[in-house]
Write a structure and sequence with these properties.
alpha+beta, six-stranded antiparallel sheet
């Protein structure tokens, strides 16, 4: 049997920080971490690697107890423990440091040790501490049967191995504790769930007791086969959506009640959720406890019905009062306070957490700031207006005033009292007027930006954030119809920049390139385009054309589609999504002036584009020979001016069809036109851009050949002459043979050249070609 010296584990963070403690504390640490048994640490593979790396036959992890050292991991030996008096690792424990014995047979500390004099005949030992809670409880050991020497580099590596083993032991204990905690939760009536946020909140964990408590298996929920929204009622779905949106807006804790419907029963579940935020304030995850409160809900419903009948007999005061004991976290309110938000006074939750969760997420930060300013003495009173959620789902505006009425001996507030007043009607009127003014400014800004930059897309993108704000929405887009009827598409001028996967990233890239179009109208926004009517959907999936959103896209819970029309013709639309409150016809009516302004801008852009197209057609007609499609004389001279702005070789040539009058006289002008078209095509084919080709008039053509030596150009012109000579024009039953004469002049540098003069030289060369018998190229 191959027996190895032992390895003792002790985590050593810094040798200078190790505290000298008695053995009783050290042994208690071993007991707390359950290391005094023979249960292994599952680190035998690490010992195999360690022995191979250091080329020793034995590697061990040993824990030094009161009477013996137990090997928790090993390689190269079957030995499971040794007595403490014979344990080499005891030196590591006693010295709180690495121990290296290079030659055990000659070391007086261990020379008579039976592990040296007998099996396994230890000659070399190296051990590094394992430290748990600043207690050295053992060592990681390397053992050899021959004399060895270790340098500082070897010892440093061994020290790091010891630290890793220490960390493994600590993490193993934490893992076991976590498993026990999860086991307790799974046996309890409380379900633990976690949602992780990337671009939207996604369920990543739910305890396995969900099927027993909620009636839905955790496997189905995590795989996505069943969504929580599939089993809860529509009202509960709205409450759940509001809770998650509140966390997205910065609310840390929230509670709500959800109704779950299963084939066999209805379950009422209370959900208490807490959000975790990154350093930049963005939500990272949401954790929630869900527990069955069906019995409690039944009692509450019975009491609520009784109390609602009683409420009709009671008079409510104008003001709601509140009195908050900060130390006890008890907020006492009167009945009027509860009436303002539709709560039953007898069952009002007195905790500050309950009050906070009623505050509108958009107002939450403001309320907290002003309250804290008063509590720390920055303001004499707490005085602010904000929205609170009514039990019927609407929002109530309240004006709240409060002051500190009691402080402790150090002057720290311990009690604050105040009043609430319902100002919903006044605030809604003021906000409506304010938004009307804001909308007018918004419309004027859109027009001014377009007039200043002459860029409709940029104008829409510039004002999109204000549109989202003024409509109280989370997402928005502005689109314009492009193209003819059946092939028309919705061009997206501006859209909320949401990227959730590779597919949407490609769409986002197209949007940035101003090339994003929507051509599938079988959806909510398509309903607006196809019908020309306002589209309102306040229930997720409730509209017949609600096809859902791409996987991973943030949830669309509410939608408002507004058509932009010019003379009853739909020219575009605005899409709005995820308002905290429901969308209504009043929202559409309020935004109608913006729709009219955009309709005017869209119409102006259409007229401008039509005018540009017409101008381009006119310019083309003015610059083009109508018969051949080549440049005319005027355009040819304009192009020559452009050529003269650049350095380069070239040539100017004039081409004339030989005996063209005879063609007209013999076959008629239609045949002559056919001959002109044929020759024009040959010239254009042999002179692709940047060469310039034009018809000067009659049977004369001009061309500029660029960027070639004279010999190359000469060959090119000769090839053109031959091509025309070999061409036969078929006209009715006749065949017409043609030839051309070419006069040319070479240009060493086109920069600043006088092309009128060059044309004259080429014309003289053409005359010489005719004098010499035609059908040839003559250079001047």
């Amino acid at each position: 049997m191959s027996v190895t010296a032992f390895i003792t584990i002790f985590i050593l963070s810094d040798a200078n920080e190790i505290r000298v403690v008695d053995d009783e504390t050290r042994l208690k640490t071993i007991d707390d971490f359950m290391l005094n048994s023979e249960v292994p640490l599952d680190l035998d593979d690490l010992m195999l690697v360690l022995a191979g790396a250091f080329r020793v036959p034995i590697a061990l992890i040993g824990v030094v107890g009161e009477f013996e050292e137990t090997f928790k991991a090993r390689f190269g030996t079957q030995l499971s423990k040794v007595s403490r008096e014979h344990s080499f690792s005891s030196f590591v424990v006693d010295e709180h440091n690495q121990v290296v014995i290079a030659d055990a047979q000659n070391d007086p500390r261990v020379s008579d040790n039976p592990l040296v004099t007998g099996e396994p005949n230890i000659c070399f030992y190296a051990g590094t501490p394992i430290e748990i809670n600043k207690q050295v409880i053992g060592a990681v050991c390397l053992i050899d049967t021959v004399h060895r020497e270790f340098d500082d580099k070897h010892l440093e590596v061994l020290n790091k191995i010891g630290a890793l083993v220490s960390q493994h032991i600590s993490l193993s204990k934490e893992h076991e504790a976590l498993k026990r905690e999860h086991g307790l939760i799974e046996k309890s009536p409380i379900v633990l769930a976690t949602w992780r946020y990337d671009t939207s909140l996604r369920l990543v964990y739910i305890s396995r007791n969900s099927e027993r408590v909620l009636g839905v298996s955790s496997q189905d929920l995590l795989s996505g086969d069943v969504e929580l929204s599939d089993v809860i009622t529509q009202e509960a779905d709205n409450d759940f959506t509001f809770a998650m949106q509140a966390h997205m807006e910065g609310v840390e804790t929230h509670s709500c009640r959800l109704q779950i419907t299963t084939p066999t029963r209805t379950i009422w579940v209370s959900m208490i959720s807490t959000a975790n935020f990154r350093e930049d304030g963005i939500v990272y995850s949401v954790q929630a406890f869900l527990f069955d409160t069906s019995d409690q809900k039944y009692v509450e419903d019975k009491l609520n019905k009784t109390n609602q009948r009683m409420r009709l007999l009671l008079e409510a005061s104008e003001l709601g009062t509140w009195d908050w004991n900060l130390a006890a976290d008890v907020n006492q309110v009167n009945k009027r306070w509860c009436d303002i938000v539709g709560l039953e006074y007898e069952y009002y939750d007195t905790s500050a957490r309950f009050f906070r969760q009623l505050i509108h997420p958009a107002d939450y930060v403001q309320v907290e700031k002003q309250l804290n300013d008063h509590l720390v003495g920055k303001s004499k009173a707490f005085n602010t207006s904000f929205r609170m959620k009514h039990t019927d789902g609407t929002w109530v505006w309240v004006e709240s005033y409060g002051k500190t009425v009691e402080s402790d001996a150090q002057g720290k507030p311990i009690r604050i009292a105040g009043i609430h007043r319902d100002i919903t009607q006044r605030m809604e009127s003021e906000l409506h007027e304010k938004k009307k003014t804001q909308l007018l400014q918004f419309i004027n800004k859109t027009r001014a930006f377009y007039l200043q930059n002459n860029d409709l897309t940029m104008a829409c993108q510039h004002v999109l954030p204000e549109l989202i704000d003024i409509s109280d929405s989370q997402f928005a887009f502005i689109g314009q119809m492009k193209g003819k009827e059946a092939s028309a598409k919705l061009f997206i001028h501006a859209i909320s920049e949401v990227v959730w996967d590779s597919s949407s990233f490609s769409q986002y890239t197209e949007y940035k390139k101003r090339n994003l179009y929507f051509d599938n109208f079988d959806n909510l926004f398509g309903t607006t385009i196809l019908t020309g009517k306002i589209t309102i959907s306040n229930v997720s999936g409730g509209h017949p054309n609600a096809k859902g959103v791409p996987k991973g896209h943030p949830r669309i819970s509410r939608f408002l589609g507004l058509p932009i029309k010019v003379k009853d013709r739909v020219v575009g639309m605005i899409g709005l999504a995820n308002k905290f409150d429901v969308y209504s016809e009043e929202d559409a009516e309020f935004l109608q002036p913006l729709l009219d302004a955009l309709a005017g801008l869209f119409y102006a852009v259409e007229l401008e584009e039509a005018r540009a197209v017409a101008e381009e057609k006119l310019r083309h007609l003015a610059m083009t020979d109508s018969l051949t499609g080549l440049f005319n004389r005027r355009a040819f001279l304009d192009e020559c001016i452009k050529v003269s702005d650049y350095h380069g070789r070239g040539c100017v040539a004039i081409v004339d069809i030989d005996h063209f009058k005879k063609v007209n006289d013999t076959y008629g002008h239609d045949a002559g036109d056919q001959a002109l078209i044929t020759v024009a095509r040959k010239i254009a084919k042999h002179n692709q851009p940047p060469n310039v080709v034009a018809r000067l008039g009659g049977e004369e053509f001009a061309l500029v050949v660029l960027g070639k030596e004279k010999s190359e150009i000469s060959a090119q012109l000769e090839a053109l002459r031959v091509a025309v000579e070999e061409t036969i024009v078929n006209y009715k039953s006749d065949t017409i043979n043609l030839s051309i004469s070419i006069g040319a002049t070479f240009i060493e540098d086109t920069y600043g050249a006088d092309f009128s003069a060059l044309l004259s030289i080429a014309d003289k060369s053409l005359y010489e070609a005719k004098e010499q018998g035609r059908n040839q190229v003559v250079w001047g």
